[in-house]
Amino acid sequence: MLFNRFLGSFLATCVSVAVMGSPAYAAKKPKINPTTLTVIGYHEVTDQNALIPQYAVKTENFESQVRFLQKNGFNFVSVSQLLKAHEGKAVLPPKPVLLTVDDGYESFYSNIYPFVKQNKIPVVLAVVGSWVETKANQPVHFGDEKIDRTKILTWQQLKEMSDSGFVEVASHSYDLHKGITGNPQDNSEPAATTRMYDPKTKHYEGDGAYNKRIYDDLKKNSDVIKAHGIPAPRVMVWPYGRYNMETIRIAKSLGMPITVSLDDGPVYLKKSLSAVNRILVEHDMTLNDLSTEIENREKDLGDNYRPQKIMHVDLDYIYDKDPEQEEKNLGELLDRIQKMGVNAVYLQAFSDPDANGSADMVYFPNRFIPMRQDLFNRVAWQIASRTQVNRIYAWMPLLAWELPKSNPVSKQLVVTQQPKGQDHLNMGYIRLSPFSADARKVIEGIYQDLGKSATFDGILFHDDTTLSDYEDASPEAMKAYKAAGLSTDLEKVRQDDNSLAKWTSFKTQYIDNFALQLAGEVRQYQPYLLTARNLYAQVALQPYAENWYSQSLEQSIKRYDFTAIMAMPYMEQVKDKAKFYQDIVNRVKAQPNGLHKTVMELQAVDWRRDSQPLSSQELSDTIHSLYKQGVIHVGYYPDDPIKGLPDTKTMHDAFATQSDRIVP
Questions:
Q1: Are 625 and 578 contacting, i.e. CB atoms less than 8 angstroms apart?
Q2: Which of 255, 253, 254, 259 is nearest to 272 (CA)?
Q3: Which of 519, 518, 517, 490 lies closest to 503, judged by CA?
Q4: Spatial contact of 415 and 445, defined as CB atoms under 8 Å apart
Q5: CA–CA separation, 468 vs 548, rounded Å?
Q6: Helix 648-655 crosses helix 323-340 at what angle (to 10 degrees)?
Q7: Based on the number of CB atoms within 10 Å of its own CB, is 89 exposed (0-12), middle (13-18) or buried (19 or more)?
C-alpha cells in the first residue's frame, strides 16, 4: 500500500518485544494513572486475506485485547462522554479508553460491529468518503492501488451501525487518503500536509490554495456523511497520522474538535483534544506488548528513551548538477543507511559552497536566500519511505546566514569587540545578530518556509548557536543589554566575574529563546517537532566555558529534546581521548535525565589534518566504549557516501550492540 514504509517508520515505536502467543492470563497488568485517557487504533480485523497485512488483526486477538483491558479495569468511553468530560460537565470512569478503527473496511461490519454491539462497547469508525461513494460496479482507488468495492462499507451499513448508538462515524477525509506530487522529482506524499507541486508551472501550492483544498475536502466528507442520515462527524482521524496546525483549525471550524494522530505520549483531558495521541495495533501485537505500550505512553517514554543511532549527512555530498549522478549519490546514501542500521538522520538543509561556515544557499524554496536546488524534500522523503529511519532532523544554522548583499538585513551582523590583533577570539562565522529585529524576522521566515516545504521530525540547530565572550557588540545588541539592565561597557563587564556571568546568562538564554521560538514557527507545519542543538565539548568539560560560548550544558538539557555534544577529540586536540569521552559522560550523568537527552556526536574525519578520515574501527571502538559507559544516543559526522566512509558493516555491528528497546 502507498506509504506503507512511511507508516512503518512512524509506527515502529508501537511495538515492544514480548513472548509471542502469551496466554491472556499471563499478560502483565498495565500500570497507569486512572485519569489518563488511552486511545487505541485498529485498521483491519479479519481472518481472511488482509488489505494491509502489517496492520491486520485476527478477530480472536481483537476480542482478547478488548477483554484484557476490561479485566484490568479499563473502561471504554464514547465521544460524547469524552467531550462532556473535557468541558468539565462530566467525569470519565477510571482508566478510560477510546477505541478507534480507520478506513471503513467491510470487515468492520462483519467482525467488529457484532462484538461491540453485543458487549455495548462504543467505537469510533473513521471513513474515507470517496471510497464509500464508489459505485457498486466500480473499483475503489485505494492509494495507488485498486480494490474491489465489496471490501469497503456501504452507506446502508454505516447508517445501521450509527443508529445502534455504539458506532460514531468519524471523518478520515473525503479524498486525502492518498499521495500527491510533492516536489519536482515527482515523489508522492501525504495529501493532507503536502504543498502540491505543479510540474507545468514549476510552482508549489500557495497558502490560500492549500487551505481551500483542505477545507473543501473535509467539508465535502462531512456533507456526504450527513446526506446519508448519519450525524455530522465530531472526530477527524488524519490519514497516515499527518496533520498540521492549519488542518486542525479547519477541522475544528467544521465541527470536529477532536482530531486523532499517531503521535507518542499520554493524553490529558484538561489539555486540548485537537491532536489526540494513540497506540496503533499491529498484526503481531501481543497482550504484553499492548500492556507495555500503555505504560510507556503513561510515563511518556518517547524519543528520549529509545536509543537514537544517528548518521549526520551533508546534502552537499548528494547534490550534483548532473541529475543522473545526483540520483546515484542518493541511491548510495539510502543503501548505506539501510546497511548501517541507523534509525535517525541529521540532514543538512542549507549549503555553504565557499566553506566559510555560513549558509549562502538552502535546499528548499524560500523567500530570503538563494535555493541551490529543491533537494531537501526529495532526500528526506526517500529516507523516510525507503529506509528504516524513523526520525529525520533538518540541520539548520541559527544565525550563520550569508544573505545576498542586496538585502539590507545582510549588514545586521554579530559584532566582535576584541583587543587589537586578537582576531582568533572571533567565532569565525558570518552571523546575523539575534538582537536585530529585522534579522530575526528574516530568519523566522526561512524557518517557516522550511516547515511547509517538506516532511521531517526535528530541527538540529547548528554549532553557530553561540556567542563568544567578545560578542555581540552590535548597536542592536547594546540596546538589548541596556534594556535588560546590563552594562554596555563590555570591556568592564569582562573584567568583573559577576557582571560577566550576568551578561553570559542573558546571552545564553536569549539565544535559546530564539531557537525555541523558531521551533515553534516550524511546529505550525510539523506539530510533533523535536529539537536538538549542537554543543561544544568544552561546555561539557569546563564550568567556565559557558562564558566563552554562551552555551550551558545544564540549560540545554533542560530546554531542548536533545543536546548533541560534539565529542570530537581531534578537533579539540586532546591527548587522552578515553579520558576526554569519559569526562563528558560523567558530566552528562550528573545532569537530571542527562543520558536520555544527550547525543554523543563523534567525528569521522580529522579536519586539522586535511579532513583525513578516521578509521572505521576507531569509531566502532569508541561507540562500544560509550555504550558500556551508559550512553544511550550516539551519532557521527560526516558520512561520506561517495567514498563509502565509514565502513557500513563495521558501523552496523557497533550500533547493533545497543538495543532498539526503550531504555528506562
A1: yes
A2: 259
A3: 490
A4: no
A5: 5
A6: 40
A7: exposed
H or E element in which residue 642 lies? none
Summarised one tens digit per residue, pLDDT across range 11-43 is 333 333 233 333 444 588 888 888 889 999 999
The answer for 607, left when phi > 0, alpha when psi is -120 to 50, beta otherwise, is alpha
Rounded (10°) CA dihedral 632, 638, 641, 643: -120
**CB 50: neighbour CB atoms within 10 A?**
18
**HEC-encoded secondary structure of 467-484:** CCCCECCCHHHHHHHHHC
Counting Cβ atoms within 10 Å, is residue 115 exposed (0-12), middle (13-18) or buried (19+)?
middle
Residue 5 has pLDDT above 90, yes or no: no
DSSP-assigned states of every residue in 481-509: HHHTT--S-HHHHHH-HHHHHHHHHHHHH
C-beta of residue 126 within 8 angstroms of C-beta of residue 171: yes
DSSP string, 536-605: EHHHHH-TTHHHHHS--HHHHHHHSSEEEEE--HHHHT-S-HHHHHHHHHHHHHTSTTTGGGEEEEEESE
* 3-state class (DSSP) for residue 258: strand
Residues 6+ apart with CB under 8 A from 372: 319, 351, 353, 361, 362, 363
Q: Which residues pair with 126 in a beta bridge?
A: 102, 170
462 φ/ψ angles, rounded to the nearest 5 degrees:
-60, 170
Distance CA 157, CA 230 (A): 11
Residue 623 CA to residue 224 CA, distance in Å, equals 56
The closest of 65, 4, 596 to 294, measured between CA atoms, is 65
CB burial readout 401-435, b (16+ within 10 A) else e: bbbeeeeebbebbbbbebeeeeeeeebebbbbbbb
Q: Cα(383)–Cα(1) distance, rounded to whole angstroms?
A: 17
- In 3D space, the residue among 92, 86, 82, 100 whose CA is nearest the CA of residue 34 turns out to be 92
In the structure grid, which three cell numbers stand for residue 447, read together? Answer: 524557518
Q: Is the pLDDT of residue 3 over 50?
A: no
- What does the alpha-carbon distance between residue 346 and residue 460 come to, in Å, rounded to a whole number? 7
**What are the backbone dihedrals phi and psi of residue 168, each rounded to the nearest 5 degrees, phi first?**
-95, 115
Q: From CA 521, how far away is CA 395, in angstroms rounded? A: 16
Cell of 365: 524554496
Task: State how far the Cα of 376 lies from the Cα of 202, in Å rounded to an integer.
Answer: 16
Residue 28's alpha-carbon distances to 89, 293, 298, 492, 522, in angstroms, are 34, 12, 15, 64, 40
628 grid coordinates: 558500556
Contacts of 556 (CB under 8 A, 6+ apart): 512, 533, 535, 563
Encode pLDDT of 246-262 as tens digits.
Answer: 999 999 999 999 999 98
Helix or strand holding residue 263 (H, E): none
| pLDDT tens-digit readout, 372-422 | 999 999 999 999 999 999 999 999 999 999 999 999 999 999 998 866 555
> And the C-alpha cell for 42?
485498529
